[in-house]
Amino acid sequence: MKNFETFRTPQTIIYGKQAFQKIGEEAKQRGKKACMISDKMMEQLGYVGECRRYLQDAGIQSTVYTGVDSEPTDHYVSEALSLFKQDGCDLIISLGGGSCIDTAKAIAVLATNGGYIGDYMGGKKQVAIPPVPHIAIPTTAGTGSEATDATIITNTENDVKMMIKQPAFMPSAAIVDPLLTTSSPKSVTAATGVDALSHAIEAYISKRSHPLTDTLARSAMNLIIPNLKTAYEDGNQIEAREAMSLGSLQAGMAFSNSSVCLVHGMSRPIGAIFHVPHGVSNAMLLPVVLEYSQSACIERLADIGRIFSKEAEALSNTEAAGIAVQSVKRLCLNLKIPNMKEWGIAKEKFESVINKMATDAIASGSPANNPRVPSQNEIEKLYQVCYQYDFSGTINIH
């Protein structure tokens, strides 16, 4: 029997309004020339230019790769790694959502260890040489990737999202400035917010949870649940944005150390095959998977129900767990989360790949952490229910 737990975080975490201004100081401690991994939107919003000015003021040169799109792929990793080497960089800065941060994690490891990023999936190849220093700066409150030792990269040859987890993928430092999230449109705020909530919930119900992750997961839910709808409805409500950024960070630290479960296992194939953003695909699945898992984690779901509703404090665990599931459904409905049919996924195509998606989900390892571990057939059935799920209704999954 294991008598201990391991808990990993970045070496440095700087959190709060205007924390972005500390990038020059942090970079100066770690290198002389930075390769910034970002995207076109961050460039248009002026965040890339602002970051480069802070770096320049600290005497740090920089080059920029802005080719990352909504989901990170092995192509982006290859292109950005070439730029990193070509320009003689010794430091990586990621600025953007989880896609930018995950891409940067892969580059930091490959720059010193070589090979194809897929080589590191499932621990087939272990990172032997310390990675290049990486400073992660999230601009959304959702993925928590700035505080995790995992990266999700799509293999473009076989449409598989590779979940790669080793301690070396943890960023050296995370700078979390909630002011950077105010530029997120409503749809992004909704998707990334439910992603953060998914992280906290799955970290809490995971078979691998432990006291440290429980503390962070509960704190994250206490921040996210009362503030997500507010941040969605009024993106300039700074208090709500602050709560979401801190909640996302805490949820990231929690799930990085306890692991995610069935929602994420099923979500990745949807993103890989149909190019649905990760936060959206998680949201499409979360209520159905919680309903399926409910019987195996009544006490934990009851705790979550009592965070959603003070009235649940006087109810039995079974009743409070039901409130958790119904509250998640209602939240998704209020945030206008679409089901897969509404997203535009063709039914014929969807049904033709259900078997592959279920196989890929199981292969990722995440479903095995779920309180109720599904069979291949059960995952296929869950996909079918999620395809045109009605967030306003009640569907029992047995």
Short overview:
This protein is 51% helix and 10% strand.
Describe it:
By secondary structure, the chain is an alpha/beta fold. The chain has 2 domains: 12-181, 3-Layer(aba) Sandwich (Rossmann fold), CATH 3.40.50.1970; 185-387, Dehydroquinate synthase-like, alpha domain. The protein contains 16 helices and 8 strands. The strands form 2 sheets. The chain has a 6-stranded parallel β-sheet with strand order 1-8-5-4-2-3, sandwiched between helices. A two-stranded antiparallel ribbon has the order 6-7. Helix 4 packs across helix 5, helix 6 (186-205) runs parallel beside helix 9 and helix 6 packs parallel to helix 11 (278-293). The protein is globular. The mean pLDDT is 95.
Give keywords.
398 residues, alpha/beta, Dehydroquinate synthase-like, alpha domain, 6-stranded parallel β-sheet, two-stranded antiparallel ribbon
Enumerate the strands of the largest sheet in spatial order, edge to edge or round the barrel: 1-8-5-4-2-3
Overall geometry comes to: globular
Overall mean pLDDT score?
A: 95
Helix content: 40-55%
Q: What order do the SSEs take from the amino end to the carboxyl end, as H and E?
A: EHEHHEHEHEEEEHHHHHHHHHHH
